[in-house]
Amino acid sequence: PWSLYYERARVENACGHREQALADLGAALENIHDLRLDLLPADAVRTRAGVWLQRVYDEFIKTAVALYREQARPELARLAFQAAEQNRARSLRESLEESERLRNRLPGRYWELVDRLSQAENTLFRARDAEAIALVGRLRHQLNELEVEAGLRVAGGESNLEPCSPGSLQRTLPASEALLAFYLSEPRSYIWALTGKHFELRTLPGRGELEGRVRRFRAAVAAGSPEAARN
Fold first, then answer.
1. Given this model, what pLDDT does residue 148 score?
2. What pTM, to 2 d.p., does this model score?
3. What's the distance, CA 53 to chain centroid?
């Protein structure tokens, strides 16, 4: 039901109810993770799903950043960063054909459980009763156990398929280094700057304007124009 959460969140955002929208978008992303869409064997399904996944991630990041701007809560900027990196990691795995290697290590029963979890999540969306919540929990646990056996998840629940948290990244950065992470979108783009001690989010112009600036800069460099230094 991730698409249902997504559509409801769009309505909530349009009404200015960003807290509710972020909660529904978080539920949508959780559902996407549960369905393991980037591991599905059918290329056509993954391609179609990828278009929608990008929309969900985009809406989540924009909503988290908007709330961060309104409420000045640093955890929201970190949440948006983690979602952007999760989306980037998913795309990278597909481009490296990593998903094919991972799929070959999963038993057939794994996909039966994924299908059962999809049905259980739909039931849970319609009515959040104790029985539906318990069933979803059991199915997630069984999937996690199979992922541990296949080497996709370490014991304790941490997934080897997901990027680490901002805090974990910061602990690995040497004192003299910084990480700059960009997320291009419309009407605004974002950049996160991380060092071992600091974390900051800034807003940039939209994708179209940035791409235009990059093209002009490359043309100026290729032509040896003094405009390159000013850009």
1. 83
2. 0.75
3. 8
